[in-house]
Amino acid sequence: MVPSVGFGLPSGVLLRRTAACSVASAGMDTLIFGGLLATWLVLYRQRGRTLLLVGWWVVFGAVALLLSHHITSSLGLGLSY
Amino acid sequence: MASTTAALRGAEGAPLLGKVQYWFACLFAVGWTGIVCAGLGVQFISWDYPCPLCVVQRMFMLLAALGAGVIVRKGMTGSISGRDYMMGWGLSLVACIGGGFTAWRQTMLHILPGDKGYGDPVLGLHMYVWAWILFMASVVAIGIVMALAHLTADREIPTSGAYWILGRTALWFVGLIIAVNLVAVFFEEGFNWFLPDDPTRYEFFYQVGILD
């Protein structure tokens, strides 16, 4: 019932994993938490409203992209509404 | 533009009530960070690996906490404008809707009778169901607080004593838990681009050869 794609196969709505992604790098989840920490720093150090908003929305957009990647079947799931 | 930055009227005659939004923002930031801590507790005490949708929900929770953090941080400077209140609650609302959608999605994946769900139930419900309930409750709470802004949103906030100490503590708590999640998800994800749908180990330690 739950699509068990694993992390070795391309999946998702927008993003596809390619063979080129074999270089060691931080994953998307890690980068997003890094972005959250950076946004927290901008907030705490009061680096400016614009920078804070840009950081927050960039992170939000990245989270939305990650969510879209993990939605691998229809939103309706074959159920009746 | 000037009307959004003007002092909110009506709260000057109720000094204690006028600080309610500042305190609620502190509670909101600490509360959502505390919920993420509960997830970390299940992760490391029950040794339950968070799935990708679980991690996405944590991200939305922390985004919501940062929205409230905007109000807290401005309060620590002694002054919060209407624009600051709106910005903070606006960001939190958007994050709660995103988190609510994610929790709804995860709930629906396991909605059919006989499905055991992902992870063990906590207090009778799975964590993603609790998350959906709390995201929706937060939306309602923010709406109530904003509707009563004429009473609860003072422009001037004391910068000494409990106001400053608790505000600073709340912000540092949010920052600390973001950092903990950064490390934890790095260990679980390793050098892969995405988490697996059903994680069974901390990939980093196997990728660098610490574990076989």
Automatic annotation (TrEMBL), chain A:
Keywords per UniProt: Membrane, Transmembrane, Transmembrane helix
Highest taxon listed in the record's lineage: Bacteria
Positions of transmembrane segments: 23-44, 51-71
InterPro entries with a match to the protein in the record: DUF5993 (IPR046035)
Protein name: Uncharacterized protein
Organism whose genome encodes this protein: Streptomyces lasiicapitis
From TrEMBL, chain B:
Localisation: Membrane
Keyword Transmembrane in annotation: yes
Topology class, membrane: Multi-pass membrane protein
Any Pfam family the entry gives: DsbB
Transmembrane portions of the chain: 20-43, 55-73, 85-107, 127-151, 163-187
InterPro entries assigned: DiS_bond_form_DsbB/BdbC, DsbB-like_sf
Keywords, comma-separated and alphabetical: Membrane, Transmembrane, Transmembrane helix
SUPFAM superfamilies: DsbB-like
Protein source organism: Streptomyces lasiicapitis
Record protein name field: Disulfide bond formation protein B
